[in-house]
Amino acid sequence: MERVSLRRSPWEALESFKDRLDGVAQRCEGMLLLLNQVLFFMLCDRWFCPDDRLTGLYSLLFYNILCYLCHYAANVFSLRDYTPYVHVSDQSKIRHLAMSVTKMVLDLTKGVTFVITGVFMLLVFGLEQGLEHFSPSWPYLVLTGAYFVLTERACQERLPPLLGWLQLASLESLEPLWVPVLCRMASSLATLLLVVAVSFWGGQDTRGGAWGLCLLASYFNVYLGLKSMDRHLKVLLQERARLGRFRFATRQELKGLDDVCPVCLQRMTLARVTPCRHMFHGDCLRRSIKDRTTCPMCKQELWC
């Protein structure tokens, strides 16, 4: 009887370790995001200002503070009710009062943090106190700022309305699905170009120490970034395939109809046509057939 060998080859062991590392990275998205930003900013330090290694840390701190201030200000201005009361139920007044006090304490803490953070920014960046090692160039600020916007979750939440403001009919109101794909594609491509530049044209004094940094950035920023983009891309393609079963309405059909979408009651400049010859916005039709397979207008089966 032959003895079965349970020993794995080095390649299989490396593949298993990589799969485990990928799983840990997917579960720790917050830590992975911070690591991606730190690695990218360190690459920018290597390329733009190799003598000032603290520039990336100062810049990342500045962007996070600015993002927090903008996010808090946006939440404050978007509130419709500034009263500290929380309406939960009419039976338990004690619980209602306790939750109201908790909300007041949280809002007060956020307000104090907002003021302290604003004063800190004025002292450090406005009055130039303690910035002897912080003198970035404009290309450095533009590149790192763009990368921060593309990767920070709070900034990504503001991008779909901005993309929708462009009124690109070809997107068919799928901006929330397009933004993660475009952001991860752009950030991964920017990191890849910077890795190549630092590896081969970073200078003799920094090339040796930059190889480890480039390898880490290639794995965490480029490889895992493209892998995350692939997951979001599959969702986007799935939704587009759902709409792809219905043809676009021609200009003659839209002109002859001269009507609004039956779902959202908005005028249609681009529409999808069902087999029963009803026209809808692509996003309206996609949302309608997500839970049912009938036409929103006549309830005829669409065979979706």
From TrEMBL:
GO molecular function: ubiquitin protein ligase activity; zinc ion binding
Coiled-coil region list: none
Pfam families xrefs: zf-C3HC4_2
Database matches in Gene3D superfamilies: Zinc/RING finger domain, C3HC4 (zinc finger)
Domain RING-type: 261-299
Regions that span the bilayer: 60-83, 104-125, 176-202, 208-226
Keyword list, A-Z: Membrane, Metal-binding, Transmembrane, Transmembrane helix, Zinc, Zinc-finger
Cited InterPro entries: HRD1_E3_ubiq-ligases, Znf_RING, Znf_RING/FYVE/PHD
Gene Ontology CC terms, in alphabetical order: endomembrane system
Database matches in PANTHER family: RING FINGER PROTEIN 24 (PTHR22763:SF190), RING ZINC FINGER PROTEIN (PTHR22763)
Protein name per its UniProtKB record: RING-type domain-containing protein
